[in-house]
Amino acid sequence: MTTAIAPSQRFIRTRHVARKERQQSLAKWLFFSMTVAMIIPLVAIVAFLLWKAAPSLDWQFIVDVPKRGMREGGIWPAFTGTLYLVVISLAVSAPIGVLAAIYLNEYAKDNWLNRLINLAVINLAGVPSIVHALFGLGAFVYAAKLGYSILAASLTLAIMTLPVIIASTREALSSVPRSFREACWNVGATRWQTIRSIVLPNSISGILTGVILQVSRAAGETAPVMFTGAVFFKAVEKGTLFSYGLNDQCMALSMHLYTVSTQVPNVKESIPFATAVVLLATVLLVNVSAIGLRVWLRNRKKW
Amino acid sequence: MSAAHQIAISTRALDLWYGAFQALRNINVSIKDGIITSLIGPSGCGKTTLLRCFNRVNERYGNVRTSGTIELLGKNIYDPDISLIELRKSVGMVFQRPNPLPISVYENVVFGLRIHAAGGRPHKAELDMAVEKSLTEVGLWKDLKDRLNDRATSLQLEQQQKLCIARLLPLKPEIILMDEPCSALDVEGTRGIEELMFALRGRYTIVIVTHNMAQARRASDECIFMLLGELVEHTRTNDLFLNPKNPKTEEYIEGRYG
User: What ipTM was reported for this prediction?
Assistant: First the structure.
């Protein structure tokens, strides 16, 4: 049964439709403007930093040591200090985190204990870094008698990055389709054979990305290293890579930035900005390489 | 085949629970050696669960509890000296969606040999032979002999499913379990798999779960009808479809529920 609508009046744009279309375009513009609002500060920060840092920014700045009470010179000791902290902390947290995640995801039964551990891991990942700093101070500096040292600071950073590594590794492992595991089990593969031959090769890109992304966190955090092993100034030789021992204290980029910005009077204006740019660039470089690695590994797998 | 078939699988008083939910109730069944037996019934009747009992892979899916006995070729698979690895080597499974591993065709076929190799690597010649033999047996050798290094996941679905069957053969399984092996395939693919099942009959005991009653009728020697976790009827396929003894079976095969 058709109602009596004149053919010329069919399918035309009524006032009701026009209102819906207006709402739709309003929504689109709202979302677009928020995207712009997000991008502007990002670009502004980077541009501002680069502009301010330009006078000091050259290769010498990276490989030179601070001079005249940090009012001149470069950031080499802080740069290598951060390198030490990041490498040692990840050398500790990556194996523990990845292997624990494999256990939790592939072996542990899905019971209340496993769920509790999962909840704890997620919550630990959200603990503020200053809390980790205090823990590190109590546990590594005092209780374990490591003193204020690279080792204590690295272990503190390791504790801080561990939960995130566990969470991201579990994520990567659970993205491997269950049907692959079923195929293995049903020809009599042990869990370890399944993990080694199928699960790991297909999740390694996600696992590595998760680990590498923690580099930027370990490099950027100030509180944990300030409490446990980073110092105001440490005299090292210009341009040498192996200038610290494990039990030494060290300088770190994030801490150095804080120092030259707030603790030292009459610092050349461009120095704090140049330090920030180096920190930013290092982190960016690491993240870009993580993305590159991910793309490369993903192109090798097709399912 | 001897006149009186030997029994490949027999269960006695088999109950199974997923947590508090009882999925199988007092299943007593004897599945004969060397023939194709189909499991039919509406969704959720427990046919896949029963199938997964036969190589105890159920236990990998979390909170499962069973009681009763399952004897495979005369041995109770719940005996304490059972190795699940050896059991699953002899009782392979094929799934709804073809699940070739994301490695080459060649590596898929020899996967079982590699993981079961006792000490050292298996010889290349031995592996090559196994690949040719298994792929020939499932009718893929002619098509794939020049594509052995291709990724298995790049094959057509029918080829993938045949490859999944070929993957079981180098381990010399006694029983092949198939869980709706054709539900992801088109008419041609289904025909291909069914023909392969006929070719394998006799050498292997095949148990197939299917949603498709026409397939059960075409492709199986005996048929088991299940409903709500219970075994309703188990008899020769022709008898089940022509003279069902239980009214529930009759109603199901006439399509009054399902």
Answer: 0.84
